[in-house]
Structure formats: C-alpha cells, structure tokens
Design goal:
The protein is α/β, with parallel strands linked by helices and about 210 residues long.
C-alpha cells in the first residue's frame, strides 16, 4: 500500500477540483507538506493567488503548512502585508500613494505590526471559508470550523469555531494528545503509513503506538 504520489497535482482521476498543493505552489515564501490538499470547484491550481492574501516577499513572512492537511473551498490565509500601522491617530496608509505623502513616514510604525510566520501543523482540517490571520500557529490534528476567523494560536487536536474562533472542545483527553504528538505518524515513511492505516484512522492509541 504505497499510496498516491504526493507529487501528482491532481491525484483523483476525473475529480480535478482536488489537488495536492506541494507540486502546485511554487512561491518561495510558502512551504507545504506532502499530501496536503485543497478542494475547490474552480480547481486548486490558483491556491496561492486566491487563498494566500497580502503575502509580499519583501516582508519576509512565510506560510508553513504541514502534511496531510485538508483545506476546504474558500479558506483564506491573511498574511502580514495586510497590516496597517496602528500607533498613530489614523491607520490610513498615506505613504503608499506617494506624491509627497510618503515623506516623514516611519517604517518602524508598520514593521512592529508584523506578527511572524503563519504555521499550520500536520493533519489539520480547515473548513470552508475559514480565515486565518497573520502569525497564527495551528497545532497538529486541529479542526477549524467553516467560516471561523482564527485570531490566536490553536492547540493541537482542538476544535475551534466562531469569530473570533474559540475552542469548542478538545478532540481527545490530554494524555491521549500527548501520546498522539509523540507518535507523529505523519512523519512516518509512506509505506509504513500505508501498512498502518487502520491504526491511524482508528481510535485506539495503544494500537497506534504499537505500530510506531
């Protein structure tokens, strides 16, 4: 059970709305793990253009997404280029329009709003039209409900929903989560994953640990 080739852009024949993102996304400031896919009726090929917004290379922030993530139609990652300086009375970006308005602008007032990389762990499910704000870290195994607006970090194996998104429940108890994170099955060789799918998609942590 070697599984599909993670370098195939459209891994499901006759169903081109689903695509593995690693071979589709070539932007150097986006890193995506094997088998992570995006599902869109218009096709996944424009994921970086449609779903990763205000992502400018000169800022230096990255979008990092792990392996085996499922990203639904219309999910959006808002990057640091969307931020405005907030230290003064006005947040209007006068400087970008030039014609003298750029004079006196202090870049530090904007750069201090940069919140770092946006990081999504492995085995994360991001629902339809969810919005992830800059600098957020989403833990392994988390579920982001449809139309959620994620403004803060999400713990591993949490289910979050709402605007602003809050933890609705944890998928498993604390001890099980620690054991799942220690197993880190998403880093196993692909052939090993294939041999142990029942343990991975089951709910017996001892069985998963025995496979590790």
């Amino acid at each position: 059970m070697d599984g599909p080739n993670p370098n195939i852009k459209h891994p499901i024949p006759m169903h081109t709305r689903v695509g593995f993102l690693k071979p589709l996304v070539t932007e150097p400031n986006i890193e995506i793990g094997d088998f992570t896919y995006y599902d869109d009726p218009d096709g996944p090929d424009k994921f970086a253009q449609k779903c990763v917004l205000h992502h400018y290379p000169f800022i230096g922030d990255k979008l990092i997404i792990g392996k085996f993530c499922a990203i639904a139609e219309g999910a959006r990652f808002i990057m640091n280029g969307a931020n405005h300086a907030m230290s003064g009375f006005s947040t209007y970006p006068f400087n970008i329009f030039g014609h003298g308005w750029e004079k006196g602008f202090d870049p530090a007032t904007w750069s201090k709003e940069v919140r770092g990389d946006t990081v999504v762990g492995s085995d994360v499910w991001i629902g339809m039209e969810a919005v992830i704000l800059p600098g957020v870290e989403i833990g392994h195994g988390a579920i982001i409900a449809a139309k959620s607006v994620v403004t803060h970090d999400v713990p591993p194996y949490a289910i979050v929903a709402g605007n602003a998104a809050k933890v609705v429940k944890m998928r498993f108890d604390d001890r099980t989560i620690r054991r799942l994170l220690a197993s880190a099955w998403w880093h196993w060789p692909v052939d090993k994953i294939g041999r142990n799918l029942d343990a991975i998609r089951g709910a017996n942590i001892s069985l998963l640990e025995a496979a590790a």
